[in-house]
Amino acid sequence: MANDLTPKYTVPGIDREAAGRLIGLLRLRLHALNDLHLTLKHVHWNVVGPHFIAVHEMIDPQVDRVRDMADDVAERIAALGGVAQGTPGALVSERSWDDYSVGRADALAHLGALDLVYTGVIEDLRTAIKEAGDVDPATEDLLIEQLRDLEQFQWFVRAHLETAGGALATEGAHTEEQAASRGGELD
After folding, report:
1. What residues does 48 pair with on adjacent strands?
2. 85-to-32, 53, 65 alpha-carbon distances in Å
3. Which InterPro entries does this entry report, sorted A to Z (predicted)?
4. How many CA atoms lie within 13 A of 15 on its CB side?
5. Which positions ≥6 away from 83 have C-beta within 8 Å?
6. Distance between CA atoms of 76 and 65, rounded to whole angstroms?
7. Spatial distance between the Cα atoms of 106 and 108, rounded to a whole number of angstroms
8. Residue 99 carries which DSSP code?
9. Domain-wise residue ranges, the chain
10. What fold does the segment set 16-184 form as a domain?
11. Gap between the Cα atoms of 7 and 178, Å rounded
12. Degrees (nearest 5) of the Cα angle 39, 83, 148?
């Protein structure tokens, strides 16, 4: 990521240096959302098994909403005077996570891995909300709205992974592969 993201101008009431910090924070959110929408499409295309249609149809509305979230973040970056770097190269060079690691797999395996993906995105988003809240309530509000939707999507995923006793099948998994294997054990 560029070291100095301080814009030449920004929205009234925020100094340029603070806007630069917000732009940096939002760039990482943009990358996370673009990556998430591509990961969700990957799951949509590569899910198989008896729960195929339920997961296949559950994922597309999530893809659409996550794409809208990315657009909102990019537009906020522009409003703050920054450049919304939405290219694949910027995403790959600036992200701090690896590519989604599950290929063609049964629905519950994908959902197990996707649960970990959502956990990472949500945890990072909560940190960003705290940072934005110190500077700009408008950016904070945008991120809070997205948090609600992402938590709901994770709830949809987790509903498939919950045992009759109320435990999450993927509890304690630290990698997508571990979570996928534990999710697949529910079948």
Report:
1. 106
2. 12, 35, 20
3. DPS_DNA-bd (IPR002177), DPS_DNA-bd_CS (IPR023188), Ferritin-like (IPR012347), Ferritin-like_SF (IPR009078), Ferritin_DPS_dom (IPR008331)
4. 3
5. 77
6. 17
7. 6
8. P
9. 16-184
10. Ferritin (1.20.1260)
11. 43
12. 45
Instruction: Say how many CA atoms lie within 13 Å of 98 toward its Cβ.
Output: 8
Q: Phi/psi at 167 (nearest 5 deg)?
A: -90, 150
Phi, psi of 48 (to 5 degrees): -140, 175
The predicted pLDDT at position 1 comes to 46
Rg (CA), the chain: 18
Amino acid making up residue 34: N
CA distances from 33 to 120, 157, 185 (A): 12, 17, 29
- The pLDDT score that the predictor gives to residue 163 is 87
Angle at CA 93, nearest 5°, toward 73 and 60? 50
For the chain, residues with pLDDT lower than 50 are: 1-2
